[in-house]
# Entry
Amino acid sequence: MTMMKTGGAEAAIQSLPEARSGPLRDGDGRWPERRRRVLDWLVLETRDERFIDNIFVEMCRRLAEAGMPVARATLHFRIHHPQWIGARILWRKGLTEAEIDTYAYGVEDTTQYLNSPLHEFNDGADEVRCHLDDPTADGPDYPLYDELRAEGLTDYVIWPLHHTLGKRHAITFASDRPGGFSSDDLAFLKDILPALALVSEIRLKNRLARTLLETYVGPHASEQILAGATTRGSGVTVGAAILICDLRDFTKLSDLWPRDDVIELLNGYFDAMAEPIERHGGEILKFMGDGLLAIFPLSDPCACSNLLGAIDEAQAALSKLNEDNLRKGHDPLGYGIGVHVGDVMYGNIGSRKRLDFTVIGPAVNIASRLEGLTKELKRPVLLSRAFVEKAGCAAKLENLGSYPLRGLDGQIDIFAFSGRKRS
# Structure
């Protein structure tokens, strides 16, 4: 957020609305000063903080320091994301980091959401408030209120947080003071909302940009891109265990099956493969039609073992998927996996206007050739001797001997992996 020159920031603060009930006061008349300190910090001192969750936690801490009886606060955002419809940032008294929860599409149809104050707010209410410690209070008694009472909270309020282009998010505050918030407390909190909206919008975009990048290019690549690795040809050489997987006869399946069935099958196959890879610390760099490329950086001493664990779990998941396909009258899916280890160039490659953050190098080519050889040898997973020696797992695998690989001089020793015994 661009800061104004001397005098401009003070003018920006002065333009924020005054308390609805006039100047805020306490016994020593210092409420306006305390309010101003929070606003000064929000407008002037958050410029170097990238993420709204960190700002939100610090804001809540400063509110408590200013004497506000805030014991719990949340921000609720609707977001554009392939997996999530929204997110919640939660702060409680004593927390030094926010708790962040995401909500999948369809949550708006659940009983939990429909019977909540957030649903009432999203239906158009500009304020939803409950005096939690007043048994005679009017209005619905949502299940959430029971949870808040169990935490010792006495008052709860939701207000809109307005962003540009008509975007309306939600902010909540809850108190643990007997009797809850006073009218001056509420005026204080309302008066900081315009400043929080200004500060939060760009940070929310930063947070969403990061999660979107992680979805499309993976966590490590997204960190590199956000850190400035955006120039074509920029990159580093890293040691990695490399996994390339390909689905068998996909072209035939896509010609014979209805489109929606093909998409469902492909998504199920990628779930079966991708989730174990990510769970074991691998990074999927790209989906290539019906195949994928993943690496396990050797900076992790367990990278090779983790890769084998990922394949083992993926094979179990694919077996389950094939059982489901058989029940639907479909043939089981075949697949091939090639595994090698070596140095790769990891970075930006492509045309002037379209870049791809990926890995290239002879080690990637060998993994690809091994995947192709699975068709000929009728073994679903083939590994190079270089990987097997690095992993120290030769005794657990079947040595198939030496084979030439297309485009490479000489032959390499190849091993077959059929899954590790489960205890």
